[in-house]
């Protein structure tokens, strides 16, 4: 049982079947094909408006290219202090923006607030030559703590950003899991709340290697075709990206996968919380479970072959601390996680 990440499982059957079908015959290269056109149309349907969508193979590529479209080299991107774009992308956003600064904002449970954004902006006054110039805000949804921004919270951050003339990017590596957790529409979680650009993730939720950068404003996306190519993310056999996205979105497959992953995460969270000595660090709102495990429980799980990710964070709840001999652990469920495996894992934890 490997629950260290939702990247450890393969692609889902509908995605693979779509790939096999698209693999037959010959079509236009570099995205000039029917599969890519269909995927782009389906993404516009998902967001309930005409969008400009570009497919890429990695989440890092999606985030870095999206931020580069919003931020000049002398600009600043504001995000949570533990956001993926700051901590986990090996400087890709800085490289693709040609040197922009990524500014972390502290906040509990992986989320920053409008007040935190205001305080950060005070350090970078507009028009002062010695300071990088505020350009955009990036919101992680799902956060690095497995939590979700509410629609109201996204809207308030976006309002603050727009008041200062900043664009808003949403890192949706687990976009479907966030939608399933909030029970809202893609439109409500993005452009209706003030988001300008989305990194729309499919890989963690059934894709093989497929993400999309989705713009809600054509002017912002104007040069993205060239930026993607220059950055090495224009795939020559683009129809194989398009086919993945079609297989992912068709027949609500993407949301079915996310609902399952979230449901088994909730079952796991409740099961572990009932084990003596186990404490949940944050509420389980999507498909990630963060717990403090007594050493004996962690050892039992490891001995039984259960894999989880050791974790650390500076945004734990006030007064919460991991005991010296406890293990801070992250468990991530996926569309492929079986309910009987969750039951077995909880039984092992109980001992």
UniProtKB/TrEMBL annotation:
Keywords linked to the UniProt accession: Lyase, Pyridoxal phosphate
Keyword Hydrolase in record: no
Cofactor(s) it depends on: pyridoxal 5'-phosphate
EC number: 4.1.2.48
InterPro entries, alphabetized: ArAA_b-elim_lyase/Thr_aldolase, Low_specificity_L-TA_bact, PyrdxlP-dep_Trfase, PyrdxlP-dep_Trfase_major, PyrdxlP-dep_Trfase_small
Domain Aromatic amino acid beta-eliminating lyase/threonine aldolase intervals: 2-292
GO MF annotation, one: threonine aldolase activity
Top-level taxon of the source organism: Bacteria
One GO term of the biological process aspect: L-threonine catabolic process
Chemical reaction(s) catalysed: L-threonine = acetaldehyde + glycine; L-allo-threonine = acetaldehyde + glycine
Gene3D superfamilies, A to Z: Aspartate Aminotransferase, domain 1, Type I PLP-dependent aspartate aminotransferase-like (Major domain)
UniProt keyword annotation of Iron present: no
PANTHER family membership: L-THREONINE ALDOLASE-RELATED, LOW SPECIFICITY L-THREONINE ALDOLASE
Functional description taken from the UniProt entry: Catalyzes the cleavage of L-allo-threonine and L-threonine to glycine and acetaldehyde.
Subunit structure, interactors included: Homotetramer.
Protein family per UniProt: Belongs to the threonine aldolase family.
Designated name of the protein: L-threonine aldolase
Organism name: Alsobacter metallidurans
């Amino acid at each position: 049982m490997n629950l260290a990440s939702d990247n450890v499982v393969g692609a889902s059957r509908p995605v693979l079947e779509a790939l096999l079908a698209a693999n037959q015959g010959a079509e236009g290269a570099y995205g000039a094909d029917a599969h890519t056109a269909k995927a782009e149309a389906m993404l516009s349907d998902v967001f309930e408006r005409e969008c400009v969508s570009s497919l890429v193979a990695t989440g890092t590529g999606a985030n870095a290219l999206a931020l580069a479209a919003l931020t000049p080299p002398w600009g600043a991107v504001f995000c949570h202090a533990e956001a993926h774009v700051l901590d986990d992308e090996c400087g890709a956003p800085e490289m693709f923006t040609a040197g922009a600064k990524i500014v972390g904002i502290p906040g509990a449970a992986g989320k920053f607030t409008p007040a935190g954004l205001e305080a950060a902006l005070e350090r970078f006054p507009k028009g002062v030559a010695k300071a990088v110039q505020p350009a955009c805000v990036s919101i992680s949804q799902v956060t690095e703590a497995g939590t979700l921004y509410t629609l109201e919270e996204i809207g308030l951050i976006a309002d603050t950003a727009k008041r200062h003339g900043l664009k808003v990017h949403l890192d949706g590596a687990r976009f479907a899991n966030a939608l399933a957790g909030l029970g809202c529409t893609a439109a409500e979680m993005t452009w209706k709340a003030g988001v300008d650009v989305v990194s729309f993730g499919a890989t963690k939720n059934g894709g093989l290697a497929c993400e999309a950068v989705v713009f809600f404003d054509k002017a912002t996306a104007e040069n993205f075709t060239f930026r993607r190519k220059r950055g090495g993310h224009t795939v020559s056999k683009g129809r194989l990206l398009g086919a993945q996205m079609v297989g992912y979105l068709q027949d609500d497959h993407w949301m079915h996968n996310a609902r399952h992953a979230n449901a088994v995460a909730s079952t796991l969270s409740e099961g572990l919380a009932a084990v003596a000595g186990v404490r949940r660090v944050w509420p389980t709102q999507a498909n990630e479970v963060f717990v403090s495990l007594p050493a004996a429980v962690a050892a039992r799980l490891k001995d039984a072959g259960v894999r989880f990710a050791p974790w650390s964070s500076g945004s734990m709840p006030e007064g919460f601390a991991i005991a010296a001999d406890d293990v801070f652990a992250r468990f991530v469920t996926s569309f492929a996680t079986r309910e009987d495996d969750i039951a077995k894992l909880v039984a092992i934890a109980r001992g």
